[in-house]
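help with this:

***
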Amino acid sequence: MAQAPTGPTCAASRQAACSAGCIPVPWLCDGEQQCPDGTDEQCDVACGGDPHVWQCDDGRCVSSSWRCDGTADCLDGSDEQDCVCGAKKVQCPGTHHCIPHWELCDRHQDCEDGWDEEGCPQQPCLPGQWQCRNRVCIMAEWKCNGIDDCGDSSDEDVCAPCPPGMVRCDEGKCILESLMCNDEDDCLDGTDEPSTCDNATQILVAVGQDLALLDVRTQAYRPLLSTETKPRALVYDLLRETYYWLTEEGELRARLPGKGMRPLYADAGEVNSISVDWFTGQLYWASSHPAAICAGLGDGRGYVTVLGKDVAPEQLTVHPAARSLYWVNRGQRGRTVIAAAGMDGSNRRELTVVSMEEPVGLSLDHVAGRLYWISEYKESIETLRVDGSGRHSFPTVLRSHTEPLGLAVFESRFFWTDGTELVSATRASPQEHAVLLRAPVSAFTVLHALQQPPRDTAACAPGLCSHLCLLSSVHPRGYKCACPEGLFLLPSGKCAELSIVYASGKAISLLQVGPGAHSKLLQEWQEPLHLQDVGWQRSVLYGTDDHGTLLRVMGHPGRREAIATRLPVCSARVDIRSGDLYWLACNRRDIGVIQASDTSPHILHRARSSIQHFFLDWQRGALYWLARGQPLQQLSLAGGAPWDAWNETWPGDLPAAMDSRAFSLLWSSALGLRALSLTKRQAVTLAPSWSHGLVAAGEPYLVSANGTALLLWDRRTLALVLSVPAAGVQGVVAFVGSEPQAVPHLSCPRTHVPCRDGTECVAQEYMCDGEKDCADGSDEDGCAQLCDTPGAFHCVSGAVCVGAGERCDGVPQCPDASDETGCWSPTQECALRCDTATRCVPESWLCDGHADCLDHADEQGCAPKECSPAEFPCRSGQCVALALRCDGDRDCRDGSDEEGCAVPRPLLCRTGEVACPRSGECVPEAWRCDGAADCGDGTDEQGCPWEEGLCGDRQWGCSRGHKCIPDIWRCDGERDCTDGSDEAGCQPAPCQSHEYPCGLGACLNASLVCDGQQDCADGSDEGGNCSVPCQRSCTHLCYPSPQGPRCWCDPGYRRAEDGLSCMDIDECTEPVEGACSQTCLNAPGSYSCGCLPGYLLEPDGRICKLTGPEPMLLVAVQSELLTYGLRSGREEVLLATDKDHVVFSLDYDLVERKVFWMDLATESIRWQSFDFGKKGTLVKGVRSDCIAVDWLGSNLYWTDGAAGQVLATRLGAAWRGIPEYTVVMDGVLDRPHSLVLQPLAGLLYWSEVGSHPRLMEATMDGSRRHVLLAQGLGWPTALALDLPTWRIFWLDEKLGSIGSAHLDGTNVKVLQLGWVQSPFAAAVCEGQLYWSERKAWSVQQVDKASGKNRTVLLKRHGQPHGLQVIHPALRPVAPNPCVARGCSHLCLLSARHAGQCRCPAGLTLAADEMTCLPLRDSAFALLVSPAAVAQVYLKDLPTTAGSQGLPPHRALPLAKVDRLTAIDYAVKDKSLYFAEVGGDSIGLLRLKDWGRLSWKRAVAVEGTVTSLALDWLSGNLYWIGGQPPSIRVAAPGGRWALVLLSEGLQGAAWLGAERGTISSIELDGSRFRVVREGLHGLSLFAIGEGFLLWSTTSTNGSSKIWHSRLERAESWSFPMEQELVAMRIYSPFSQEGTNGCAKSNGGCAHLCLPNPAGRLCRCSPGYHLVRGVACVLALPCLAPLQACSDLQSCISGEQVCDGHPDCADGSDESDCPSVEVGTQVPVVVPSGMSHVEEQKPALPTAAPKPRQPGPSLPTAPGPREHGEPFLVPPSSEEVLGAVPCSSETCNLRGDCAIEAGRVTCHCALGYRGNYCEEAEVQPVAGPIVLGVAVLLLLAAAAVGALAYMRKRDRRRRTSSTASTRVLTLYHRESDPEEEDEEEEELPPKSDTFVNEAYDGKEELPAPLRKGPSRPDTVFS
C-alpha cells in the first residue's frame, strides 16, 4: 500500500505529511493513529513508502537525513550501522556516495538522484514575500506602505507615509492621534482602543539578582525574591504561581509556591530561552547545545525532546491556545527564519525569512495572535500573524545605535530594554519613549490576566497522561502523551519503566530501569526456581523447578502452583493478551499449549530436530524457535504449519534472545554480537567482538550475566548502563508494563478514568464537578474556570466543558462527542443527508437524473425545473435559450424546440446541405449516414453503403457486417458487435481464490462446495473426495472439494505458489474491474478509494463526482459560443458574432470570469465577460490553432503552427497597437498544434503535427523541453489533461483514435474508433471524454477509460471548434508565485512553483531581473579602475553640465586584486575575465547565489597580460602577454593553450594620442575618417551602440570621462576620482551570432579556431593533428633536431629552407624568405576599449603571402616560438561547416568560384590573396592599436551574423506573427572545471554589480540591425 509522497513543505522540515499538516517522522507506523485520516498508520510498505524516511530494523521510522549522522535515533541503533560515511557526512540513499551535511539544500545536486535537494526551500524568501536590495525579505504588500520595511528604503521609493499628527492602523488606514483611546473604534482592527487604555499592566523584571514587579501606570517597583544569579530570561505561570528563569550559564531554575527555589534539569544543556504552557503548567525551552526544543514538567519529574533534529532554535515562545510554539531558527548557510510547529513537534513550518535582519527578542501577543521581534539590521520592530500572514514593520520605534536585549508587546504598547533601562512606546506615538525603569534589566515579561487566559479545551485534561501532555494541532485527540527518557508510553497514556525480573538462586528479584533505577526482592523459596516468563498484566510468574515441573506464582508474595503438562518442561512463554501458556518439553522437540479457557495441555507441534531457543511474540501472534542446522522457524498462533522466517541455518549452541519490542532476534557468536531484523529479514553485526553473553533484550537495552552480576547495556552505543550483583542467574524476563502487584491490576471501564495514584477509578461525569472523588484529588486538578466562560458548552456526560468556538467545529472535544451532535443544517455543499445521515449530497447533485444516495433520496420528489423567461422549456425537462427556438437545430433532446415553427421550407438547400426527400428540411451533408436520423422521415440514414476496407492494426473485425471495434473490447465481457462475435470463443475469466471453478466455466463460492447440494450446473462441486477431512495448514481457510481438501483465501487475496498461504492483491496497481476513479489506497484484503478536493465519493465507493456548481461545457460552433449543462442539459448562447467570423480555439478564466477565443477573421484573440457582456481584444495580428489560459499565473498561451512557436501574453493586457507578448518557445518546433497547461506544476504540453508527429512537455517558461511520446502518432490534433488520474489524452485525426498516457509518457493506451474523424478540441471531466468533431458537425462524448457509451451531445448547423469544461475544481487555486516576483511586464511560471520575468518584443530584462527596458536602454559601459569595476547603463549617462560624480552605477569591488591590466565580459554568462599585474593567471569572476562572488582561474599565463579578448561564441580566450609579447589562445576552461603569433609584436603602439584624435577605418582598410579630434589629454576610449566614451587626464592629474552620441557634436563629462585602466561598452547585440566553433567545440579535440571558411582545429603543444579533428601525442625531437609542423618527424636546422622538402607536409620549405615587398597589416579591436600607449614607435611587419589567411589575421616570418606552428591553411577535411561560396568568402572584395573542386577568389582591383585579404596599396597612415586576436573574433562573428540574418529573414517570411526567433548565442555545454575557486562575501549594504541586462532565453526583435549588411566599421 503506497502512501502519497511527502509534501515539499513537510519534507523541507524533515517531517512527514499528514492530512492535517506535518508530523514528526517517528510518529509513522508507531501503532498509534495520530493523523485524523489514519495515514500515519498505513504501513503495508515500509514507513508508508515515504521517500524521505528510513525504516529502522525494529520497524520504527526516522528521517533519511538522520541515517549515519553520528547519533543513534533508532532505539536499536540500526540507523548508525553499516555506515559507509564518516562523521559529519550523509549517505546518498541506495549508494555508497557520501556528502557533507552542508551540501544538503545547497542548490546543487550532489547525489545522483538529487535526493540532497528534495524538499528544500527554493527561494531566499517565502511565497508572498519580496526581497529588498539588501536581501532582506518583506511581505510583498509592504511595498509603498509608508514604512521603510527593508531598512534601505528600497521598498519605499516615491511613497509617502501617513501625514504628521496621524498614526497607522494595522490594516494600513491613517487616523488622528487624538482618536486613540477615545472609546470609539476608529481602526477596523480595533488597535486604537486596546483594553489597556484604562487598565493597569505589570511587568516582571530581573534587576541584578532580584525579581521585582513594576506597575506600568504608576511605575511602582516591588521586589519579590532573590535568584542568587543574574537571570537571562524569565517566565511566570499565573495559575500555578510559579516562577521560572534562566541563569547566565544557561541553567534552569524554578520557584514553586511553598517549595522554595530549586534547579531544574541539570542535563538540559546550554538553554537559551524559556516559555511556559500555562494550560498544562509545563515548561518549554530551547537549547543551543544540544540544539533542541524540549518540554518538561514544572515539578522536575522529567522532560522530553520535542524537536531535536535539523533545528537550531533560540527565542522560543509558546501559544497554548493555538497549540503552537514559535522560535527563531538559524539554519545552514546563514538562512535564518521565524519557524513554527505544534507543541508536540508536528506541523513544522517556516513563517518568514529573516536572514539579514538579526532578529532579537521574539515575543508573542497572545491576545492579537501576533509575533513581534526586533530587527537589529533595520533597527525596527517587525511583526506578523501567527499563521505567517500580515507582516508589518515599525521602523521608527527604537532609538538608533542601541542594542536591545528583549522585547514584549501587549495591546498597543512596545516594551524593550537595552540593559540599562526599560523603555516603552505606543504604536500611536512610536517616537515618544517612556522610560519605565532606569536599572540594569537583564530580562522581563508582561503580566496581565489577558496574557494567560484560562484553558479552553478538554485536551490535556488531568489524568489523561501520567507525565507530559503535549498539545497538538494535528493529533485527532488534540494532544499527545509523552514520556521522559528511560520511560515508555503505554496505550493508556501512562509512562512505564523497563522491568527486568530475574531469578538468582532461590530468589526472584525485580529491577526497574528508569530515572533512579532500583532493584527489589519479589519472592524467595526454599528450592531454586528457573524463571521462564512474567504475565505482568495478571501479576503471574511462570517458572520450572529442577524436575521440569511447570509452576505458576500468583502476585507477590504468592504461592507456587504446579501446572500439569504430562511432559517435563524446560522453557515456557505466556501470551499476555489471552493468558495462554506455550511450553517446550525437555525433549527439545514437543511444543505444547495450555489455553486459559481449557487447562488441559495440547501438543501444538513436534519438531524434526532439537530446539535450542524458544520464543513467543504475543503481540504479533507467532512462535519462533531455533534448532541446530535449521533455519529460524515461525508458527502462527492461529494454527497451520511452520515456515522459515529466515533462510540462514542456526549454527548451534549460542546464547540468543528475542526483543519483541524491536521485532528482532539477537545472538552472540564468534563473529560478535549479531541482530536479525524480522521486519527487514536481514542481519547486521552490532559489535565485531562480544564476550558478555546474552540473556534478554528489551529495546533499547540488552541484558547479560557473568556469574556474579546482571549487566545492562545500551543497544545503541553498547555502553554499560548498570551492573546489579546477582549470582547464578536462572532466567531473565524484560518487559514494559506494570510490575507484578499483590492486588489485581487496576483496569477502569470505558466510562471511567483512573485516579493519578492508580488506586481507584471514578466516572467521567465526576471529573471537574467541584468535589474530590479521588483520594489524591486528581479528578479536580487543572479544572479551570472553563465552564464559567461565556458561551461554554457543557458536555452531556459530566461537568466537562468546551469553548464556544469548539462547538460544532467538526472535531469532538467532549468525551461523549456531544459537542458535535445536532449541528447539521443544509448548505450548498451538503443540501441533503441520506443513507441514515452518513452521506452528504451537494445541491448540484439533487434531481440530476443520477442516484447519488443508496436509498435514492436525492432523486425523490423532484419537481420539473422552472426555466427563466429567457429560456424555452423542453418537454424533456431541459431549458434552452429562446434564441435557439426554431433555429433549425434540435437543441432539446426530444426536438420540441423545433416543433410548431412557422418557418417556410427552403426552396434550395445551402452549399454543404442536402434535402430530405419526404420531410423536406435541409440537413448538413456531414450528417448523412452518421448513425442518427436527422431528417424527419429518416431518409438521411437509408441506403448507406458499408465502408469497405480492412480494420486497423489496433482493431478487431466483427464476424457479420463491416464493424470494427478496438481490439481491447474483444473478450471484455460486453457485447460490442451486434452479433456478439467479439465475446465468442473467449476463455472464461479465472475464478478468484475464494471461488471454486465449475466444469462449464462458472465460479462458485467455496462454502457451497461439498455441502450435499449440486450448485454447479454439471454437479462438479459434489462427490469425489468431499469426505476427506481438512488437515492442511492453510493460512486462511481449508475447505473440502471433490479433488480433496484445498486452501482457500478470503476475497482480496490470492493463493501463493505453495498452495497454503495467501498473498494480498494490490488492487491499486493491478488492473481490477471497477477500480478507483481517482486515488486508491491498498489495504490487506481490500482497498479504498479517495477523491481530490472538489470531488465526493459516490455510494459505490469508487467513482468521484464533482461537487459545487454544475459542470458546463463551453463550445464554439461556427460563429457562436454556447454553454451546455452536463447534468441538466441546459443550453445557452453566451456569444453570437458576425456570421463571417469563426470562433476557433477558446478557453476561460474563472478569476476574471472571462472567456477568450481566437477570431480567425480579424486574426486576433478576443475576450468577453461571463456576467456583463463586456468585450475586448487581447492581441492582434496572430493566427493560432489553439489557445490556453494559465489561470494561476494569469497568462494566455497560444501556438503558431506556421512559425513553429508558442507565445504568451498577460490576461490583463489590452491591445494598444503594440504587441505585448513574448515568444515562449520556437526553433525546433515542428508545426505545434494543440496546447494544454498544468500551472500547478508549471508545465505545458503540446502536440506537433509536422513530419515527425510527437507529444512534448516543457516548463511554462519554455525551458526543460523533452519528448513525451513520439511513437504511434499520426496527427494528434486535440489534447486534454485529466489531472485527477495524471493522464494526458489525445485524439488522432489520421489514425482515427483516442489515446492516453501517464504524464511521464508511460502506460500508453490507444483506442481506434470509427467515429473519430476530424477532431479539433477535447476536454475531460469526471469519467467522460468530450471532443468537437468537425467532419460530423457535432460534439460527442465517450467513456474516457473504455471509449464506449458514445453520445452525441450537440449537433448544429455549423462546425464546432474550441471546447472546454467549466468548473472550479478543474482549475484548482494555489498561490501565484508571480505575485511576489515583481515583474514589470510578463511573468511565466516555471518548475518548482517559481516564476520567471519575461519581456515583450522590443524590450529586454534589466539587471534586477524584474524590469523590462527598451533595448536601446540596455547597453552599458564597464569602467575599470585598478581594483574595481563599475557598470553604468548608457541611458543613465548625464546630459547636463556640472555632474559632480559617477552617474547611477553598480560597483564590483575586487579586494583581492592588486592592479587590473585587462578585462573582457561575457554578457550571457555574466562573467568577467580579468588580468592583473604580476598575476600568473587570467581570473574569472561570477556572481553566485546568495550574493557571493565566485572566483576561479580561467587559464594560467606567463608574464603580465596587457590585453585580452573573449570569443563569446566558442568560449576561447585570447590574450597578449609575456616578454617578448605574443598572442595566445586557450580553450574554454583553460584546458588547452596555444601561441598564435609571437613575431612582429615588439614595439607596436598608438600614434595619435598626442594629436588627441579618434579615427575609424573599415575592416578592409578603406574609408579612413577622424571621429573626434582636439581631445586634449586623451587616454582611453570605447565605442559602441551609437555612443562614444573617452577619458582625459589634465596636467594636474585629475581625470574626466566624456561621452557623446556619434551623430552629435555635443559632449558631456563627469569626474572620475580613481585612475582608469580600461573602459568597454556592451549590449545584448555586441555578443550575438554564430561561428564554426559555437557548438560542441566544432568537433575539435583541443582548440577550435573560427575562420571565415568555418573553423580550424588545432592541438596544444606536444600533440599533432590527425584527421583534422583529433589530437595525438607528438614525437619528441632531441636537440639539435626540430619537429616538422605535423610533429611526425624530426629534421636538422640545415634542412630548413634548403629547397628540398624533408618534412612529409613540406613545412620545412614553407614561409621561407622571398623577394616580395612586405605590407603592414592593420590591427584592430572591436567596438570596445582601445588603450593608448605612448612613446612606442610602430615597426612595420613584413608579411609574405600566406596560404590561407583570414580577413584580419597577420602572419609573420621567422622561427616558431616554443616549437609552435603558425596558423596553416586547413585541408579540405579540416573545414567543417564551411559557408557556401559567396562574396563573403572573398571578404566582399571579389567574386567566388569553385574551380577543380576548390574555392577560388577573383579579387577586385587593389586586393590580392587567396581570399582577397591583402591590400596591394599601402594603408592610410593613422592611429592603429594592437589587438590581433580581437580582430579575428570580429571577422568570424561578422560572417556568422550575416548568415544568421539571412536565415532569420527567411524564417520571418514564413511566420504568421510579428515576432522573431530567439537568437542563438554561445553557451558552453559544460562549465569550466571548478578548481582554484574562491568566494568572497559581498558587503551587505553595497550595491553589487552583475550585469543581467540580457538573458539568452529572452526574445530579441529583428529590427535592431544598424545600417546595411556590410562589414562593421572599426574605430581606432
User: Anything to note?
Assistant: The chain is about 0% helix and 35% strand. The helical segments are 8-12, 1828-1854. The mean pLDDT is 78. The first helix runs from residue 8 to 12.
